[in-house]
Amino acid sequence: MRKLLNGLYDSAAALAALFLVGLLLMVLLSIVSRQLHFHVPGTDAYAGYLMAATGFLALAHTLKRGEHIRVTLLINALHGRWKKAMEVWSLGVAAVLAVLFALYSCKLAWQSHGFNDVSTASDATPLWIPQLAMALGTVILAIAFVDELVLELRGQRQTATPSEALRNE
Questions:
Q1: Do 88 and 153 meet the contact criterion of CB atoms below 8 Å apart?
Q2: Tally of domains within the chain
Q3: Which domain holds residue 44?
C-alpha cells in the first residue's frame, strides 16, 4: 500500500511538472507571437489553466516532502502526549478540510460539465476540463492528509524536515 500511495504522489508531481513545462511553452508562445506581430488566441487562458493544474497537482507531493508551510511554534513547545495530541488534532482538521475541499472541487467540475459552462475568454474552453486538474489534485491531497493522520496515529509518521527551508528561518 505504501508503494502505491508514494507512486500516486510521485505521479501527480510528474504530471504537475509536465503542466509546468506546458505553462512555459504557453508563455514563450505568447511572447514570440507578440514580437512577431501575430496573435495566438487563448494563450493567456491556457497559461492560467496550466498554472492552476501545476499548483493543485503538486500539493500532495509537497506535503509528503515536508515542504508545506507549518507554524510549529506551539507544537515545538509541547512534549510527549501533548505534542502527539496536537499533531493528531492538526492532521485531523487538515484531513477534514482537505476532504471537504476535494468534494467541493469535484462537485464544481461535475456541475460545470452538467451546465456546459465555458470560459468567457476567447478560447471558450469547457471549464470542467481545467477544473479536473484541481479536483484530482485536491483528492490526492486529501488522501495524503488522511495518510499522514493514519501514520501519526500508528506512530509511524516520519516528519520530513526540509534542510533548505531550515537554513532560511
A1: yes
A2: 1
A3: 2-168
| Inter-residue long-range contacts of 95-101, CB under 8 Å, 24+ positions, other chains counted | 95/142, 95/145, 95/146, 95/148, 95/149, 98/138, 98/141, 98/142, 98/144, 98/145, 98/146, 99/142, 99/145, 99/146, 101/138, 101/141, 101/142
Any idea what the Cα angle at residue 167 is, between residues 161 and 169, rounded to 5°? 90
Q: Given its phi and psi angles, is residue 70 left (phi above 0), alpha (psi -120 to 50 degrees) or beta? A: beta
Which three cell numbers mark 131?
Answer: 477544473
pLDDT of residue 66: 81
Report residue 167's pLDDT band, with 50, 70 and 90 as the boundaries: very low
Q: How far is CA 78 from CA 3, 72, 74, 168, in A?
A: 32, 10, 7, 23
Q: What is the pLDDT of residue 77?
A: 84
Full-model pTM: 0.85
Q: How many CA atoms lie within 13 A of 122 on its CB side?
A: 6
pLDDT of residue 160: 58
125 CB-contact burial (10 Å; exposed 0-12 / middle 13-18 / buried 19+): middle
Give me 5's grid cell: 500511495
Which positions ≥6 away from 121 have C-beta within 8 Å?
Answer: 42, 44, 45
- Decide: 139 and 5 in contact? Cβ < 8 Å: no
